Amino acid sequence: MATAAAAPVWSVDPRTGKRREQVAVEATATEVDQTVRAAHEARAALADRPVRAALLRRAAELLDEAGEAVIEAADAETALGPGRLTGELSRTTYQLRAFADTVAEGAFLDVLIDHADPALAPPRPDLRRYKIPLGAVAVYSASNFPLAFSVPGGDTASALAAGCPVVVKAHPDHPATSELCAALLRRAAADVGLPESVVGLVHGFQAGLDLVRHPLIRAAGFTGSVRGGRALYDAAAARPQPIPFHGELGSLNPVVITEAAAEERAEAIGAGLAGSMTLGVGQFCVKPGLVLAPEGEAGDRLLTALTAAVSDTEAGVLLDRRMREAFLDGVRSRAELPGVQAPVTPGPGGTHTVSAGFLTVPAAHLTEEGPHDVLLEECFGPVTVVARYADDAEVGAVLARLPGNLSATLQLGDAESAGTDDTGRGARGARLLAEVTPLAGRVVVNGWPTGVAVAPAQHHGGPYPATTSTSTSVGGTAVERWLRPVAYQDTPPALLPPELHDDNPLGLPRRVDGRPEGG
User: Fold this and answer.
1) In what order do the strands lie in the sheet with 353-355?
2) Of 187, 439, 470, 489, which has the most beta carbons under 10 Å away?
3) Where are the alpha helices (DSSP H) in 79-115?
């Protein structure tokens, strides 16, 4: 019986819709198995923290050195533009170096030592706890960030920092970029004396399913659609041995603009909103997709400013034809709803482009279940929905119906931001903050959610469906996703790992008997 030929993987130019080159072929089940097993066998090589830190720093160096080629490849496949991609590459290499610093410092191991205390009732045994890597991790690349959330991105960097080998499922929108970046990461591994198999790469839809189901994969990270992420999430849970699945799926990222804020700076808010919702042709996962704006004169001025700014935005290319069609269909179905208007109509800007726009609707249409519920779902691309509210009760009713989000934004007036004043507006700011906090992993006040800083205190996550776990995919604590704690009880010192020795030979930050060591 003849064996079916492996399906080719093509690099496609989204500006023309034409194939550029065949990059690879889709991985068979056997090839996925071989790649995973090779990564699994490389676990021991990643045990040394200084080597892991060196790997991450060398990967950053090689990406910087190959920056021109990386940006050229990514732009050819995504149409995101050299300017945007230059910034994304800088973010990616900064992220790798930041995780190298995290590895070198060692606090992520969360070392706790409680010495035996026979005087307690009941007596306490000697207990020593730290965190160890889970094992080989599957990473699913994002369409909209071919670098920072793909092969060399945060999931890969944080997993390697934790000591977990990685097998990446390349996104079909940028396979050539994926191959180039994977080759650079493997070269970095070889340069620091690690096996290249600490980073594997596979292509193909079925390969993605085979990957999450493979018995040697111990966790997975995903950035993409609700539909695709939920299918993988369910597959991860249905395994004989379920695994953690850290998926970023979808987010509406609501914005509440108070009447006071609109009165004080309607024009600035309108321009800022336009910039945020059209950034990257509206393809950011934290694009504001629902805006609650007041009725009345101040709200009208805000919409006038928004109309002018959005109208000045040039048409842009979405990541692929499928996304373009989904955007146009999504806008069309929303615009046809009763009470919905389009001050600036989003739509086709040309054969391969789309134009930005926004829709308006009375907030009262969103306070109860009905056909307008589609307005409470993410529409990927340069469009937002502005819901005009009559009073605070309508704001609360709409917020109460929202699913989980990556971000929530408040635009407050000066008195509302101050917290207290004689008009009662100060209390409103605190109340709104309390209302949106349960809805999102990051709350932005008097700013815009697009732009997720890589910093130790960052949290890029949120209640489902924004993410499938409570962890973050950005910032130093992202490493925690790929670790699990182990406690050793009454273990002879000669058998303990060095991280748990009394003399602290590795110089780790630790808590001993309830206090910071050396503090």
Assistant:
1) 316-317, 353-355, 347-348
2) 439
3) 82-105
* Residue pointed to by tokens 């890969």: 156
Q: Pseudo-torsion of CA 484, 439, 400, 295, nearest 10°?
A: -170
322: Cβ–Cβ under 8 A, 6 or more apart, which residues? none
Give the angle 28-31-35 at the CA atoms, nearest 5°.
140
Residue 2: the pLDDT is 45
- Does the annotation mark 164 as catalytic? no
Options 164, 285, 378, 379, the catalytic residue: 285
pLDDT over threshold 70, residue 173: yes
pTM over 0.85: yes
CA 519 to chain centre: 36
The stretch 193-206 carries a mean pLDDT of: 98
From residue 345, how far is each of 244, 310, 357 by CA, in Å? 42, 10, 5
| CA separation for the pair 54, 42 (Å, rounded) | 16
410: phi then psi, degrees, rounded to nearest 5:
-120, 130
Q: What is the pLDDT of residues 279-308, one digit of tens each?
A: 999 999 999 999 999 999 999 999 999 999
Q: Strand, coil or helix: what is 247?
A: strand
How many residues are given for the chain?
519
Residue 68 known to be catalytic? no
Active-site annotation holder among 31, 88, 248, 499 = 248
Residues whose CB is less than 8 angstroms from the CB of residue 34 and which lie 6 or more positions away in sequence, other chains included: none
- Both tokens of 30, joined, read 């056997």
Residue 8 vs residues 74, 172, 179, 359: alpha-carbon distances, Å? 19, 11, 14, 41
What are the residue ranges of helices labelled H in 153-283?
A: 154-162, 175-191, 205-213, 226-238, 259-278
- The rounded distance, in Å, linking the Cα atoms of 286 and 448 is 9
Structure-block tokens of residue 457: 């205190």
How does DSSP assign 308-373, residue by residue? HHHHTSPPEE-SSHHHHHHHHHHHHHHHTSTT-EEEE--EE-SSSEEE-EEEEEEGGGGSSSSGGG
Q: Is 406 helix (H, G, I), strand (E, B) or coil?
A: strand
